[in-house]
Amino acid sequence: MTTSAETLKITPDWRFLLRNPAHWLAFGFGSGLMRKAPGTWGTLVAYPLFFPLHALGVGGWALAALCLPLFLIGVYVCDVTGKALGVHDYGGIVWDEVVGMLLVLAFAPATWAGWLLAFALFRLFDIVKPWPIRWFDQRVGGGFGVMIDDLIAALFAIAVQALIWR
Q1: Is residue 58 left, alpha or beta, with left meaning phi > 0 and alpha meaning psi from -120 to 50?
Q2: How does the protein's chain sit in the membrane according to the entry (predicted)?
């Protein structure tokens, strides 16, 4: 939800990210600095977080429960970073993609095909933003606004994933 009135106060770089832990998280450990498709790179960050959890047996509802505090942290870090940049939902802020993808992976079949389909579905819904995702993206501001549309995109991806794997 970038409006014409929003302009970057500062161009984000590694110094910006390292100056504040909120920026480091909001930018997905630096993945949001990628010039092309930062949301896709941010989504990929979920995998190195997911695989160790998966190896420890954390999946399904346990992983979904872990996404709740990560979502709440995201509301804060995305808000702080958006205000520092002067742009509410700057493309490099990708913590929302990280958390959304983790949620989709929580319910993906534990196979490479399952994990790849989870990625494709989440990116599809995050990019296309069918109703009501686009409605929330355009009307809800702050860190909550950054996070909520990706949560809804994750729920859409989970639903379609469940239909496909039935």
Answers
A1: beta
A2: Multi-pass membrane protein
What CA–CA distance (Å, rounded) separates 123 from 157? 9
Half-sphere exposure of residue 14: CA atoms within 13 angstroms, side-chain side: 0
Q: φ and ψ at 4, to 5 degrees?
A: -65, -20
Is 19 within the bounds of a domain? Answer: no
Question: Does any domain span residue 154?
Answer: yes
Give the integer Cα–Cα distance in Å for 54 and 72. Answer: 22
98 is a domain residue:
yes
pLDDT in tens, 102-145: 999 999 999 999 999 999 999 999 999 999 999 999 999 999 99
Sign of the alpha-carbon dihedral angle for 121, 104, 36, 147? positive
In the chain, DSSP finds a helix count (H) and a strand count (E) of 8, 0
* Domain coverage including residue 109: 24-165
Predicted TM-score of the model (pTM): 0.93
User: Across all residues in the chain, what is the average pLDDT?
Assistant: 94
